[in-house]
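S2.1 Query sequence (Hydrolase)
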Amino acid sequence: MSLRIRAITLDLDDTLWPFAPIGARVDFVQHDWLLANCPRTAERFPVDAMRRLRDVINAEHPHLAHDFSRLRKLTLARAMELAGDDVAHVEPAFEAFFAERNRVECYPDAIDALERIAARVPVAAVTNGNADLGRIGLRHLFAFQLGASQHGAPKPDPTIYRAACERLGQAPQHVLHVGDDIDLDVVGAAQAGLRTCWIHRNDLHPEPTWPHAHVRPDLAFPTLDALADWLDAHLQDDVA
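Output structure tokens follow.
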């Protein structure tokens, strides 16, 4: 296969690290902070009730669907108002959540593979989530991070992939978008004109089956280091 890859855009959650363990912890960490600092809010909105309130806030603000951090802050503000706590606690309560959200455990292959890939071509993070590569300690391996909240629209909106390509200084057909999500990371990027690589890790895709006939990934691997191996074998001439 001949792919002239000059740069890579890379998804984060479930591509570099599993998100499920993070998602299972963050609301409880936030609740523990509320117990210590806003007990009335914690009593009125235990974890399940806070999640239901967040669903209400999300429904009230569909125009913010791309901005998870803003929606969480709005939820905290509403909860504190209803419970009679000072909304000045929103930012420190969010910080408790955000610190835990960025406590990630990368897949065993991910950091070494990312270092190998970043040494060969520029890599930009393109994510719908609110992970912070600086806090995580991986920012130095990326040209930049483009989040849906920053861009104003989430994947699979074609503008977010094209904005990343423009910042990379490359035409979309020379940028490989890499990620785990079939629709967000493969179909969406392909429709925006990028080349695509599906990372079908075993924890999410134990028996990977591609569901679409109209579009297929250019590459597909179960791990990121397999992509790094492919780049080592195929890109010597293209990036010289």
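The mean pLDDT is 95. The chain has two domains: 7-17+105-234, 20-101.
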